[in-house]
Every structure is written in C-alpha cells, then in structure tokens.
Amino acid sequence: MTDLSSLPRPEPRPGLEHEYAELGARLNGLLPCVEWPLHLPWIDAILRLKAMRGATILAHSYQSPEIFHGVADVTGDSLALAEAAARCDSAIIVFCGVQFMAETAKILAPDRTVLIPDPAADCSLARSITAADVRALRRRHPGVPVVSYINTSAAVKAESDACCTSANALQVVESMASPRVIFLPDRYLGQYIAAQTTVKLILWEGSCEVHEQFSAAQVRQTRAQFDAQIVAHPECTPEVLAEADFVGSTTAMSGWLRKQRPSRVALVTECSMADNLKAEFPDIAFIQPCNLCPHMQRITLPNIYACLRDLQHEVTVDPQIAARARQSLDRMLAIGRRDRV
Questions:
Q1: Do 129 and 184 touch, CB atoms closer than 8 A?
Q2: Distance from CA of residue 94 to its chain's centroid?
Q3: 168-194 pLDDT, tens per residue?
Q4: CA pair distance 271, 248, nearest whole angstrom
Q5: pLDDT of residue 329
Q6: Strand pairing report for 264-268 and 113-115
Q7: Which domains does the chain have, with CATH numbers?
Q8: What's the predicted TM-score (pTM) here?
C-alpha cells in the first residue's frame, strides 16, 4: 500500500496553467484561489496516467470540485453512476465515492477492474444494517418484499428483492405490487416515501450522519437571514423537510434549479454538492448551511493518483453474493427514472 505521506508531488510541467486555462476558469470561485496551483500538477498527472491506463473515473456529486470537475469522466448521483458502470467499456474504473458505490460498480461491471482510492471511505447507512439483519426481518415478516436503498453493502443487496436510490425509491416500492414492503436502511427516506404511497413501509432505524445533523431551526434561520429558497435531500429529518421549498435527490435538485432559477438557494445536503453546482448556475447565490461527509472527503487527488499508478485497492465481491445483488440492482435499473427531471 502506498504511503501517501511520502508520495512525491508531481512536478509541474512548463505551461500547465495555460494548458488548463479553461479548467482553471471553471474552478474559479469553486475553490480558494490559493488551492488551484497546488491541485494543478496532481490533476495533470492523473489525466495523463488515466489516458495511459485506459481508465474511466466516476465521481459522485459529493466529491470536491477539483475531483468532480478536474479529473472525472462521469459525474452524478448513485443511480447515474450505477448506470454508467453498467455500460462502461474501459478496462479500469476508478470510483471516487464510498465503498458501497464501488461495490455496485463491480457488481454491474464484473469483468472490469474497479479501484477505489481509499478503501476506508465508508458510509453510516451501509454500516447500519447487515445481511443477517435482513434475513431476520424476512423471518419476522414472511412474504413481505424487501427494498434496500443503494447505500448498503453488496451482501445486503443480495438479500433484497430490489434496490433503489432516493431518485426512484417511490417507483421501486410501488413496483413491488405488495400492500407492505420492508424498506431499509434509512428511516427518514422511508418516512418521506411512506407519506406519498398507500404501501405500508416497515422501516429500519438507519440514518445518514451528514443529513441527520441538519435542524429545522437552522433551516428557518437560513431562510430568514438570507431570504433563500430551501432545497433538501430526503435523507434529512421530517422536521427539516417540512421547512423546504423542494425535496429531492441530488439529480432532482439540479433539475429544480434549472427550472426555477432562484436568486438565492440553500442546499440542505453535503457541502460539495453546492460547490459543484456553482459552475452550472453562476447566476444563483448558494447559501451553504451544509455538512461535509467525512467519508467522501477521504478521496483526494493524491490517492487517486496513487490508485492509478499502482493499480491498488481493487474492489472485489464474492461471485455468489454479486449474482444475487445484481438481480436487485437490475430490477432497479429496469424500472425507469420518472422522478429524475
């Protein structure tokens, strides 16, 4: 394993700032100006190494701007990245996100080499439930189908009937054609979906450590102080969602901004989401009552470089688990994306 503390910084080539002037202009305002010269040699080295390896870099919307805009080939929410992994034709996929996302990519692209820059990039939701927990729920509720949020391990997906993302959870739940559905592991997303359907949801007590931190008082203060529209992710508490002007997945948030064009908006979600959207919506003032995901922030330009250089931190999934998890993911992907506008 590469010791990143001793990893030499790539030497800047002459004329780098001119060569990457367009990217520099795009990142202007998304990053502190002093950071750009520090990131640029890493970005250049990663892009050259990526081309040499024939690799594709996938990056979640919660990745920092120098990764999201600087080195990624495909960006988006969990559903978009799952779809991208399924159709990727590169021999190597580098997944800039957390472990369950990289596992999903490996399940959907089993013949590809999937790498994650830091295997310790975890997720509180994925940690909150195990395959044994799902089996116990099935015994307690015989015959009730299980829908698991994509923020779960491969082993949990293998015990589920279908997966979902925040973008298509309602569609997936209703596609089960059952009066009751076990929905796991995020209780707040489950409560949000339960309010929109006649299906009775049996919930698990998981939550996202980032979104759970927001409070209704914080949202009200943001609206009063900045006269901002409030857009919240459904992993937030019901009290926060009740204060929002719009609730939706990361992709739905972008669609709402594109349609509504508010002068000021507060995105109640992970900080980097707003940072990355500033490039697309320079006319919108983003107020950031946000929280950083400590797990997403484990992915950095140096460990992306090390990952590509040494082809380290390969993601593997037991073939039997992968085959069963693939069925749950395929069911999700087949349902469609009506809510992603």
A1: yes
A2: 14
A3: 999 999 999 999 999 999 999 999 999
A4: 16
A5: 94
A6: unpaired
A7: 4-122+296-310 (3.40.50.10800), 125-209 (3.40.50.10800), 211-287 (3.40.50.10800)
A8: 0.89
